[in-house]
């Protein structure tokens, strides 16, 4: 009987060995991570191709690739400046059941928010989420399947920059696309700041690129300086503004670096690549670490840089303080 018991015990030990039994109660150091074989599909909807948005998308992709390597697959789509195309793009992402959506620019975010309440959505290059999503008394956290990063610069400091560089200016025209809610928010804020400083500030709204030239010409004729916010339509058509304002000798203060490089004199700007990179790190925390997007507050750029367009400033005989950095010419 004892011999039979020993044989049974030996057989049990052999079976346990083949089954992978272990005396450890903790995690096996040689075991693969639970999500080691998982791949993630990330849909990217970018409103339009221009320097700032392109940099944000690249920063996002670089950060997420660094975190997840080959485990992430990007489905990158560009809406060519059309809001309806944004809706078509994000609807296709939802039908494919992607793991996360990056919405680059406000119309892309609005389209994604309308398309799904289940798939995590990260926005980038969004100036003000409360305005973009129609949230009253926005407290910094959307609280649903949406979070992201903001490109909001200190608008009061941009207004102050204008008065410091152009102390003789009396009339300022604020040129923006009326179809972009966050552009309206910016010019309203800057207008109030300029009026506090005793300047006359007038809004010049254009509906799309078709009437930009006429509106810009009127603004340049009537004002000493123009201000343009972080506006996607302006960014995509900076050459039109430059072709009107530079020959007329009217300087433009821009809301961000890419626009300033195209038609501006000075700007107080963020780095859009860094903004996109921060968004990519948020995406990694959601996908790989399971962080709850509804509890993730909107993140803001940590620093801003005073920059100037050396070519235009030289042509218009504008001298900038030593703490301004020249914008590097595009390669």
Helix content: 40-55%
What oligomeric assembly is this protein in?
single chain
Question: Which superfamily, in CATH terms, is the homologous superfamily of the largest domain?
Answer: Response regulator
How are the strands ordered across the major sheet?
Answer: 7-6-8-9-10-12-13
- Structural category: alpha/beta
Query: What is the rounded distance between the termini?
Result: 87 Å
Overall 3D geometry?
Answer: elongated
Q: How would a textbook summarize the main sheet? A: 7 strands, mixed
Sequence of secondary-structure elements? HEHEHEHEHEHEHEHEHHEHEHEEHE
In total, how many domains does the architecture comprise? 2
- The CATH class name of the largest domain reads Alpha Beta
Instruction: State the CATH architecture of the largest domain.
Output: 3-Layer(aba) Sandwich
What is the averaged pLDDT score? Answer: 90
Radius of gyration equals: 26 Å
Beta percentage is 15-25%
Unreliable residue stretches = 1-34
CATH T-level topology of the largest domain = Rossmann fold
Give me the number of helical elements: 13
- Please provide the count of β strands: 13
């Amino acid at each position: 009987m004892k011999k039979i018991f020993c044989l049974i015990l030996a057989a049990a030990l052999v079976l346990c060995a083949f089954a992978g039994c272990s005396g450890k109660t903790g995690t096996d150091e040689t075991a693969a991570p639970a999500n080691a074989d998982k791949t993630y599909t990330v849909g990217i909807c970018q409103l339009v191709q221009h320097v700032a948005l392109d940099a944000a998308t690249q920063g996002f992709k670089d950060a997420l690739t660094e975190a997840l390597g080959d485990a992430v697959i990007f489905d990158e789509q560009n809406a060519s400046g059309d809001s309806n195309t944004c809706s078509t793009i994000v609807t296709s992402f939802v039908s494919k059941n992607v793991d996360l959506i990056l919405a680059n620019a406000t119309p892309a975010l609005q389209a994604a928010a309308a398309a799904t309440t289940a798939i995590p959505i990260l926005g980038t290059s969004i100036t003000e989420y409360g305005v973009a999503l129609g949230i009253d008394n926005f407290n910094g956290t959307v609280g649903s399947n949406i979070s992201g990063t903001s490109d909001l610069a200190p608008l009061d400091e941009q207004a102050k920059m204008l008065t410091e560089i152009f102390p003789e200016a009396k009339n300022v025209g604020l040129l923006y696309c009326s179809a972009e809610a966050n552009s309206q928010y910016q010019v309203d804020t800057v207008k109030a700041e300029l009026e506090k400083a005793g300047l006359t500030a007038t809004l010049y709204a254009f509906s799309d690129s078709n009437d930009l030239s006429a509106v810009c010409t009127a603004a340049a004729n009537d004002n000493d300086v123009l201000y343009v916010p972080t506006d996607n339509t302006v960014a995509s058509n900076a050459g039109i503004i430059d072709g009107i304002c530079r020959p007329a000798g009217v300087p433009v203060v821009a809301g961000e670096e890419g626009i300033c490089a195209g038609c501006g004199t000075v700007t107080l700007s963020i780095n859009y690549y860094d903004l996109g990179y921060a968004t990519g790190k948020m995406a990694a925390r959601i996908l790989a670490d399971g962080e709850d997007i509804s509890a993730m507050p909107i993140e803001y750029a940590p620093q801003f840089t005073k920059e100037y367009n050396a070519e235009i400033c030289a042509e218009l005989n504008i001298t900038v303080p030593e703490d301004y950095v020249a914008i590097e010419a595009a390669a």
